[in-house]
């Protein structure tokens, strides 16, 4: 019976497969268009467990574009600010529906279906609400499979939960509790780099400043799962070599994005642009250039501009490295700087059309001005300034 809904789910997922590239977009598609094809089913039926496994597997295949999953599933279930992508945990979403169904009953919800539920499981739940059971109304000794499942989930939940007022929880609150009970789970990146404030990192990565095109690279970089040569070599991928695409060192994320001689002129350009907007002395450090842990920079506007510089430059480094490695395109460090400056100019032009004049000047007033509806870029955005870095 569930097979039809599953086919509907698969068709919808296939429809979206090539339309969406960013992680955040894919997560929204899963939560809104795709999962709704099956979740209505659990309001009154149970789904066989092998179907749940297949659905969960398809969700992750959709997110990564392959069967290999570099980040733990438990992490991806979490909220954006905690390092996850809000990928639906199908089993727990279903359990949350079951629980909310029983909570309505325990809270004396007024609806015709309540009389049926009292008949089926009023006796089993009388411990939590004595009014559910009465000798003057019929109660069944047989419990249907749907309510057997509901009661099983409910008993397990009662064991785990440590608060009294859980009966007032919404489905969302129940689900949040189920995927990470009492906030015990901490993503791996937090343990590997304890000095980085990852809450701030992920808030920055998912902020409006970061272009969705660049966000995937930033997200992977924060989790240290960019497919650099050393990463593939350590994971024993076929024919993987650990040497850098541009030089003779091992290609780790820190080497490629910060230390490599080929990419350092671009990093110096970013640093120069940051320096002319701020009075503080900042150097090229992993905290900013790898983990986006930008905070306390004076104003929200400055943070917005810095995040654009950092995310765009990381994106340029990664795409250029891939072009050199896979398409054998010849590039020089100057090409990276030119591409970066062009993307910044493009972003400024977009913001010029998008924002009000006051906001535009708050963000970009240090790098350009406008005359007769045209943008005049200052000399800092001329790539010839940066020839000395090469
Ligand atoms: Zn290198």
Uncertain runs: none
The count of DSSP E runs of length 2 or more, i.e. the number of strands, is 2
Helix content: 40-55%
- What structural class is derived from the secondary structure elements? mainly alpha
Percent of residues in beta strands: under 5%
Task: Output the strand order for the largest sheet.
Answer: 1-2
Please tell me what the overall shape is: elongated
Radius of gyration: 27 Å
Main sheet? 2 strands, antiparallel
Number of domains: 3
Question: In sequence order, what are the helices and strands, one letter per element?
Answer: HHHHHHHHHHHHHHHHHHHEE
What is this entry, summarized?
With 390 residues, this protein is an all-alpha fold.
Describe the protein.
By secondary structure, the protein is mostly helical. It folds into three domains: 86 residues, no CATH class; 88 residues, no CATH class; 198 residues, no CATH class. The protein contains 19 helices and two strands. A two-stranded antiparallel sheet has the order 1-2. Strand 1 and strand 2 form a beta hairpin. The chain is elongated and about 90 Å long. The relative contact order is 0.07. Bound molecules: zinc ion.
